Amino acid sequence: MDREKIDAITGLRGLAALLVVYGHALDWFALPWKNHLFGEVGVTVFFSLSGFLMAYLYLGKRFSAINVVDYAVSRFSRIAPAYLVIVLVSFFIYVNIDPNFVYGISGKNILRHLLFSGNASVFWSITPEVEFYFLFVLAWAASSRYLIRSDVAGLLFLALGSIVLLAYRDSFPGTFVGSKLHYFLFGMIAGAMRSHIQGRAQDRRWLAVVHAASVAAIGSIVAGWLVLPFSGNQEFYSSILTAVFGAFLVFSLSFPSAIGNGFFANRLMVLCGECSFSIYLLHMPVIYLVRKIHPEPFSLFILLPFAVLVLLFSWLNYRLVEKPGARLIKSAGSLFKRKFLAVFPMAAGNRSMPLGGDTR
Fold first, then answer.
1. Which residue range forms the structural domain that includes residue 299?
2. Domain for residue 247, yes or no?
3. 9 and 49 Cβ atoms separated by less than 8 Å
């Protein structure tokens, strides 16, 4: 299996983005189901995926300056192009065209958003995500030190800090990583475990059962048959149970099965996963535009063309902004690495450590 890409995980990211879209569409469309936690389920899957992938992709690499640069370039190239373009376009629209625009980015908060710390509409979730990227570097350094020198001091310090943050997570604002740390932590644990485990053919039938149960659970939530026992989104986000479920879902789908691949690794879901960040950022402006054109609530049959419209805009943004921007940032990163290594050749300590299961 390719350590760099798992199609079912990509498809799960696409589903998470679509759940967020549907959760927000409930407020704008006359839809039959009124479970307003759809969006929250999608966001928690995003957080769990981030923790899982960071641990799965990087904890097996030696912690070195050059590998940290690779990590930083990879993370920045993933989110910066679409994010910064949409922030700047939203700022222009809000200030010069429409003061009621759904993304209220003005001169008062533009700097916060450019620094990935804003909270206008869906941008709030980007802030803890970026903060986690910085926090993960500490976890990576501590785990590397333990694996190389058997030094547990760093891990113990991070464990103590995590316990304190988790204990007071309800006191933190939603844009602070401490309020969502349990999602990233359980995701990281799942990713580290996955690095040690190789799926065997005889395990496929059990995986098929788990994946079928996962699909049934998600479908029941979407259909409104399974009512989540939370009074609101704050209680939902604070729950350890939802963090465990998110991590388990990601972990189980990292192993292949016919059912898992059929639902999550098909071409449509993988496409949604590839465009998921653009879907997440663009669906609210599309909803706002549709609402401006037609102020009355839409009926259910309009949901599919609306979803197609969101996906079309997101695909265009992915192809015209995200991918070219990512290539540009990665090229700049490669140039920086060459110059950096010319000055500090010892920084290229990029050998892998024995975490097990590295099949690249």
1. 7-346
2. yes
3. yes
Cα–Cα nearest to 228, from 39, 50, 52, 47: 39
Q: Give per-10-residue mean pLDDT for the chain (360 aa).
A: 74 94 79 72 95 93 90 96 97 96 96 95 96 96 91 93 94 93 96 81 73 85 74 86 93 90 93 97 93 79 85 97 96 85 60 41
Cα(36)–Cα(26) distance, integer angstroms = 7
What per-residue confidence (pLDDT) applies to 109?
A: 96
Tally of domains in the chain: 1
In the chain, how many H helices and how many E strands?
15, 0
SS3 247: helix
Q: What is the pTM of this model?
A: 0.90
310: its two tokens: 């969101």
- Rounded Cα–Cα distance for residues 214 and 37 (Å): 17
- What's the token pair of residue 38? 């759809």
Is residue 2 a part of any domain in this protein? no
Alpha carbons 19 and 11: distance in angstroms, whole number: 12
> Does 233 fall in a domain?
yes
Q: Do 70 and 81 form a contact (C-beta atoms < 8 A)? A: no
Confirm if 289 and 28 have CB atoms less than 8 A apart.
no
Contact predicate 57/360, CB 8 Å? no
pLDDT tens sequence across 233-277: 888 899 999 999 999 999 999 998 888 899 999 999 999 999 999
